[in-house]
Amino acid sequence: MKKNHIVQSLRTGRIYHKYIGLVIAALVIFSATSGILLAFKKQSDWIQPPSKKGVSTDLSTWLPVDSIASAALSAFRQMHPQQPANQIDRIDLRPSKGMAKVLLEDGWWEVQVDGQTGEVLSVARRHSDWIEAIHDGSIVSELFKLFSMNILGFGLLIMTLTGLWLWYGPKYYKKHKNNF
User: Fold this and answer.
1) Chain centre distance of CA 177
2) What is the spatial distance between Cα 101 and Cα 130, in angstroms, rounded to a whole number?
3) Are residues 58 and 120 in the same domain?
4) What is the C-alpha to C-alpha distance for residues 93 and 161, in angstroms, rounded to an integer?
5) Dist CA 129 CA 38 (whole Å)
6) What CA–CA distance (Å, rounded) separates 75 from 68?
7) pLDDT in tens for each of the 180 residues of the chain?
8) Among 160, 105, 110, 108, which residue's Cα sits nearest to residue 134?
9) Which alpha helices (DSSP H) does the chain contain, by range?
10) 149: which of 53, 56, 88, 118 is 20 to 30 A away, CA to CA?
11) 89 with 150: CB under 8 angstroms?
């Protein structure tokens, strides 16, 4: 390598490292902060409601899924009449806990229902869901999620490579400067 080539690659590396670093830093701050919160979701009742225990872990004694869904929607609409159109997104059956978590589409709500009796055990917000949406970028859109996570991944790779060159390049130059 020629002296001018090494010096120019170091200058170019610094420029890429600086400007890519600014963009990546913003994405890393959001992703890291939300990731830290998500790591504590089971330890924080605010981030994710604690899982209640139902009466029976024997699935043969449980109500049909449509009855569990009806109980959840009825309880939610009674507690939140201003959101009558909120529908079920998914139902997570938790046989080991004897209950089902009914997750609603809007507002990150969760209704826990006893699988055997249909009794509503809990109605609470799942803050972990919107924190996860921030974490992966899907809070903006699925396209933004795809774009931002790829930018973050490629950006961190470029930052690592340019950072290594910015660290090693001057050492290489000093060691070989008499050969130029």
Assistant:
1) 48
2) 17
3) yes
4) 45
5) 9
6) 11
7) 566 787 888 888 888 888 888 888 988 999 999 999 999 999 999 999 999 999 999 999 999 999 999 999 999 999 999 988 899 999 999 999 999 999 999 999 999 999 999 999 999 999 999 999 999 999 999 999 999 999 999 988 988 998 898 899 888 888 887 776
8) 108
9) 3-39, 65-79, 127-136, 142-176
10) 88
11) no
> Which tokens sit at 150?
């790829």
Same domain for 119 and 54:
yes
> For residue 95, what is the DSSP state?
T
Token look-up 């049909």 returns 64
Q: How many residues does the chain have?
A: 180
CATH number reported for the structural domain that contains residue 68 in this entry: 3.10.450
Place of tokens 């699988």: 115
Contact 158, 3 (CB under 8 A): no
Question: Does the pTM of the predicted model rise above 0.85?
Answer: no
Residue type, 11: R
